[in-house]
Amino acid sequence: MDITKVVIPVAGWGTRSLPATKNIPKEMLPIYKKPVVQYVVEEAIQTGLTDVIFVNNQNKKIIEDHFDYNFILENLLERKGKPELLKEIRDVAEMANIISVRQKLQLGLGHAVLCAREVVKNEPFAVMVGDDLMFGVDPGIQQLVDVAKAERMAVVGVVEVPQEKVDRYGIINGEEYVPGIFRVRSVVEKPAVEDAPSRMAIVGRYVLTPEVFDHLDKVEPGVGGEIQLTDALERLAAENRLLAVRMRGRRFDAGDWAEYLTANIYFALQDEELRDGLVANLLELLPCK
Ligand code: G1P
């Protein structure tokens, strides 16, 4: 089973990040030196996914442009004798095949995935949420692709979240049949804290089988009046066709300001040129000093 396509829904409005995202897609906000979406695409590429399908709206053209050549800038860098920078920006243009589909109405994550149906066709494919970042030993989506290939089933990535946060996520109910892998019995989107079947929350990483499109075609609007991907996953779970993998590594939700800022510091601390100055500045800012 070969998996080469990844769907990255990027048509959301990013209201959590306003006013920064009034005219800039939330996926283009920088974390350290790169826009958020570049980390997501790099994770896909490291996993061997070569065809990136952006599900976008009319304001997101800048995302595709980021993964394309910019001849004027390249020319300038060439003339100014900046070969490293030139290579860096050319590499971004050459890292993936970019395919765009429009989500003309923002009817939910499930609807966004359904918009990619004609491009994905009849193959298993990955879905990566454009503002969820995962860093660790293995690329996040690789952890799911490995299990999906071995088990020939759809797989979702999960992490354990505190009880009071379960109402922000899709929550699975299932049993861990080998360490780190769950057979999913049911899934519920954003349950009330007291109703959640577990604390295992779906993060923005999925490997899906094409039968999910038939389910998405049929599901009615769910939580928030949206076509929920979780509701289609619930149908896969009911047919015993869904696994979950406990994801290893650190996750950042770039739509949450505290996590967004932490992610910036996380990367900056890995840059030897920046580290000492940054730590000194942060210590100076600490109010308890
Ligand atoms: C979406 C999914 C939810 C999942 C979450 C992960 O919710 O519907 O099941 O847990 O992504 O980021 P959203 O954050 O778009 O409301």
Could you provide a short overview of the structure?
With 289 residues, the chain is α/β, with parallel strands linked by helices. It is built from 11 helices and 13 strands.
End-to-end CA span: 57 Å
Give the helix level as a range of percent. 25-40%
Count of distinct structural domains: 1
CATH superfamily: Spore Coat Polysaccharide Biosynthesis Protein SpsA, Chain A
Say how many strands there are. 13
Poorly predicted ranges:
none
CA-based shape: globular
Bound molecules: 1-O-phosphono-alpha-D-glucopyranose
- Number of helical stretches of at least 4 residues: 11
CATH class: Alpha Beta
- Average pLDDT, rounded to a whole number, is 94
| Order of the strands making up the biggest sheet | 5-4-1-6-11-8-12-10-9
Radius of gyration, in Å, reads 20 Å
Structural class computed from helices and strand pairing? alpha/beta
**What proportion strand?**
15-25%
- CATH fold-level assignment: Spore Coat Polysaccharide Biosynthesis Protein SpsA, Chain A
Overall description:
The chain is an alpha/beta fold and 289 residues long. The chain has one domain (5-270): Spore Coat Polysaccharide Biosynthesis Protein SpsA, Chain A (Alpha-Beta Complex). It has helices at residues 36-46, 61-66, 71-79, 83-94, 109-115, 117-120, 140-151, 211-218, 229-238, 257-269, 272-285, and strands spanning 5-9, 30-31, 34-35, 51-56, 97-102, 125-128, 132-135, 154-160, 170-178, 181-189, 200-208, 242-246, 250-253. The chain has a nine-stranded mixed sheet with strand order 5-4-1-6-11-8-12-10-9, with helices on both faces. Helix 3 runs antiparallel to helix 4, helix 5 crosses helix 9 (229-238) and helix 8 packs across helix 9. It is globular and about 60 Å long. It binds 1-O-phosphono-alpha-D-glucopyranose (G1P). The site of 1-O-phosphono-alpha-D-glucopyranose (G1P) has 13 residues, from strand 11 and helix 9. Residues 109, 129, 132, 169-170, 189, 201-204, 228-230 line the site of 1-O-phosphono-alpha-D-glucopyranose.
